Amino acid sequence: MNRLRGLLQRGLRASRGRSARAMSWAMVGQVTAVVSSTANFLLLARLVGPAEYGLIAGSWALVLAVSPVAALGSDRLLVRDVNARGEQPRQALGTALLSCLVGWFVVVGALVLLRPLVLPQTPLALLLLLALADIVAMGTAVTVTALCFSTGAARAAGISVVAINLTKLLAVVTFALVGSGDPVQWAATYAAFALVSAGGQLVFALRRFGRPTARGWNLLTRAREGLPYTGSVVAGVVQNDADKTLLLRNGLAVEAGHYSVAYRLASMAYLPVQAVLQAMFPRFFTLGGEGGMPATAALGRRMIKPLLVYGALATVVLLAISPLVPLLIGEEYRDSAPLLALLAPLTLLKVVQTVTGDVLTGAGRQHVRTTCVGSTAAVNVLLNLTLIPVLGVSGALVATYTAELLLSVLLLLAVRRGLRAAVVPQGSPARAAADPPP
């Protein structure tokens, strides 16, 4: 019995060591994301001005909203297949890529058909180039990153994230050197760099994990499994970005530019939180498979306290730097400064939403998470449709905070209901997750 206990303790320490390494490399990736994203949007905003930046942001938001549909939840299912089902990495990769390929054709085709109805002011070339970059190229890169994290290849995953972020930075630097100021030219440059980066990462994955296979792949089965993950991600993107697209659709391109700049700055404060949760996501699945909701909730409780402290500090920093927006981006963006101050507390709400959401997902309740996010995204869209024509940017702010607060409450209540329905036995993974590390 003592020998067995010793083996279990060594295994737990090794698991924590792998989690720490994964988190370290995820943080490297997210530090790169902070630097490259900041430089990327600062340069782009300066080069094109508020109106053109509003056009880019509104069009980009639409592409990002539909890109998870094309992926069919492949990155999340890949993590599940490797960590919870013990599937071979090359099989998981082949299944994910084949699912993505089908999704790409469907979603890009739908964008072309719906553009005249949704965003008639957006040039078709701009929309297609953004789709090529963020649906096809970045979708491939994210799949490779997910495979690396799920197999414990934290260093490779971190490098993959760095490559994704540097791609966007190199594109905007090249665009600045060309000096055209045309959004379509920027999108073409971005798509070219994204395709090269994704191709390199795919070659790396093939060499490391072998030739992908997709034995037993079934589109209907995969779509049914992936829809809860896809729905959650799509609803989350709609929750975050619908206001930008609707501001643009209402002819408020300049206002959309100011709002997008402020939202982008506020979102950057959340990147370190994403790094921590991305690295810990496989552990939520592992604990959920062993101990259900009590196990994932115990891990969530350990994580949420320091993340909330960080969120509070980030809010203070954003409030302090908001008057500096004209110095950072240009005097023409002075109207973005008060919007940044108003959006600063969003980091705290995002921490609550993501941790509670991962608790549900790891415990096999992704459908509950999707329902919560989908419901609040619908509320957000309806409020934006109602308030933006009357109040403009102020209406977008009211809609955002109403939906974000509602989502936080719904997810917390869902976790509470799940815990009430579960019993935590002594010696369960929930107890182990709740114990502090040695």
Describe what this molecule looks like in 3D.
This protein is mainly alpha-helical. The chain has 2 domains: 21-217, no CATH class; 226-438, no CATH class. 86% of the residues lie in helices and 0% in strands. The chain has helices spanning 2-71, 74-83, 89-118, 124-150, 154-178, 183-209, 219-249, 253-268, 271-321, 325-329, 336-343, 346-362, 366-391, 393-420, 429-434. Helix 8 crosses helix 11 (336-343). The longest helix is centred in the first third of the chain and has 70 residues, at 2-71. The two termini are 21 Å apart.
Residue fraction in strands:
under 5%
Compute the number of helices.
15
* Derived structural class: mainly alpha
- What is the approximate shape? globular
**Mean pLDDT, all residues:** 80
SS elements, strand count: 0
Distance between the termini: 21 Å
Weakly predicted, low-confidence segments: 1-17, 424-438
Summarize the structure.
This protein has 438 residues and is an all-alpha fold. It is 86% helix and 0% strand.
What is the secondary structure topology, with strand pairs?
Elements lengths: L1 H70 L2 H10 L5 H30 L5 H27 L3 H25 L4 H27 L9 H31 L3 H16 L2 H51 L3 H5 L6 H8 L2 H17 L3 H26 L1 H28 L8 H6 L4
Helix pairs in contact: 1-3, 1-4, 1-5, 1-7, 1-8, 1-9, 2-3, 2-4, 3-4, 4-5, 4-6, 5-6, 7-8, 7-13, 7-14, 8-11, 9-12, 12-13, 12-14, 13-14
